[in-house]
Amino acid sequence: FHFKNGEGHSVGAYYDPPSKDLFMKHDVVVDWHPAGKNAKPLHIEAPSLQYREATAEIDLTPTGRMTRENTALEGDNPVIHLHDDGAGHKYVSRIDAAHANGTDDQPGRHLTYAADLVWVYYNDDHLIERVVAEGNAKLTSTATTSQTEVTAHHVELFFDPQGKESLLTHVTCDGKAVVTSKPLPAPGRLLSDTHVLRSEAIGMKMRPGGREIEQVSSHPPSTLEFLPNQPASHHRSLQGNDMVIGYAPQNRIESFRTTDVKTTTDPSAEELRRNHAAPATATGSRILTARFDPQTSEMVFMEQNDNFTYQAGDRKAHAGKATFDKKQNVMTLDNSASVSDATGSTTADHVRLDENTGDFAAEGNVSSLRLPDKEQKNNSSMLSSDTPLHAQAQKMESSNRVNSRHTRYEGNALMWQGANRLSADVVEINRDKHTLTADGNVITQAWEQPKADEKNKNAGAVLTVVHAPHLVYTDADRLAFYSGGVQLDRPELHLKSKELHAWLADSKADSQLEKAFADGAV
């Protein structure tokens, strides 16, 4: 057969002149040559073909395949819709097919799609403008360095016809949508994480050229999962609303933003080898933003605002704002920050936690509570092991490193256990050496409560107040050494000296003060 826009052949044919219907019975092959200046031939293959000129439709039954240079579409019972430009030229405007699949090959990118129903829309140059896939829709785009797979109930692909090619501009997905971005091996480059986004509706914007992703967004509640491809990487999961993921060239994630977020980070394979009990980390906040290294897709910085919460094992934190610097592995909390674990809690305006060492620093209206140290066997009135230790200061630093467990309070420091109080400019506690050091305007207030027995039934509590510039207390010998000019006051005793050694009694004794030695200008 030879006709105005092409030629074809088949085994057997029937033509009805009144209706202008052409029926090509078996083994149909047609080459359609559209009239557009940039149009390329359309090659059609099918078991049978029926052309209805009155309705401008070509039916392929029971299956059909259509190929246009680097694009192809095949499926069940395809229908090719034609339209006339008024000058006698017919163009393919749309192709419909059931249980269809298609391909689109461009330099540096291979695109495949499939669904229960597919509609492909063309312009007058027979360039694809839009592809609609519905029912078990699946789209796979393979570039040089990554592969992106999309599944959903309904998927639409939008193209920008330019010259003789159609460039993919954006994709929309609705109904149980899943977008998986997987890196492909490349020489000299470690595999980054695989990203899986799940939502009811997802949109993808492509970079110019249509080969790489520029942005992925979702609006209903969504889940983003990071699947590690390296032993040092972490498995992460984020649940939130209004997710926006920005990509650098080569489909490498560069930025991320979401609202009403909850995150879970599992320990890496390397961390589990070092510590089988390494805990997972969970956070939550109203807003989360993150930046990634575009070379590795590793997260380098994260910020969470508005009602931030954190938990890793027994450590918990809360703040108005939190930032995490992955390079330094440091988390910073601002605005009514609080941190707690099995040993106690701290609140402050600003808290900095070092995830590598476990150290943390607090600044601004610091208030802390340390629970009794179960390892301490002997009790004294200065560092009692059975009473919580409270403290307030402008600054606080704490370290839990091996052989370097200490806490430092600075700026109007105030500590108390029960009724006993200690204030100074600076107070430092060394939990390994069981010592306490205080400097600047040191004041200690110790209450002695006589034991409730017949001997002391009418005795009242006794307050001992000591002022000094410097204090060193060692728990091993229960010695408090005051220096720099000391003043001691207690009922019926007023004492001044340059130095004072005060040995505190065991908690079982009748008096907290066992003995004292004053030296210098007494």
Short description:
With 522 residues, the chain is an all-beta fold.
What features would you describe in this structure?
The protein has 522 residues and is an all-beta fold. It contains one helix and 32 strands. The protein has a 32-stranded antiparallel beta sheet that branches. A hairpin with a 6-residue loop joins strand 14 and strand 15 (213-218). The longest helix has 6 residues, at 269-274. It is rod-shaped.
| End-to-end CA span | 126 Å
Main sheet properties: 32 strands, antiparallel
Distinct helical segment count: 1
Assign the structural class, choosing from mainly alpha, mainly beta, alpha/beta, alpha+beta, or little secondary structure. mainly beta
Report mean pLDDT, rounded to a whole number: 87
Q: Outline, from the CA principal axes?
A: rod-shaped
Roughly how much helix do the residues carry, as a percent range?
under 10%
Unreliable segments of 5+ consecutive residues: none
In percent terms, what proportion of residues is strand?
A: over 45%
Which value, in Å, is the CA radius of gyration? 38 Å
How many beta-strand runs?
32
What are the salient characteristics of this protein?
single chain; 522 residues; mainly beta; 32-stranded antiparallel β-sheet; 1 helix; 1% helix
SSE diagram, text form:
Elements: E1 2-3, E2 6-16, E3 21-32, E4 42-46, E5 48-52, E6 57-61, E7 63-68, E8 71-84, E9 90-106, E10 109-122, E11 128-143, E12 146-162, E13 165-183, E14 194-206, E15 213-218, E16 222-227, E17 236-248, E18 252-265, H1 269-274, E19 281-292, E20 299-312, E21 315-325, E22 330-341, E23 344-354, E24 360-370, E25 389-401, E26 404-417, E27 420-430, E28 435-448, E29 462-474, E30 479-490, E31 493-504, E32 513-519
Antiparallel strand pairs: 1-2, 2-3, 3-4, 3-5, 4-7, 5-6, 6-8, 7-8, 8-9, 9-10, 10-11, 11-12, 12-13, 13-14, 14-15, 14-16, 15-17, 16-17, 17-18, 18-19, 19-20, 20-21, 21-22, 22-23, 23-24, 24-25, 25-26, 26-27, 27-28, 28-29, 29-30, 30-31, 31-32
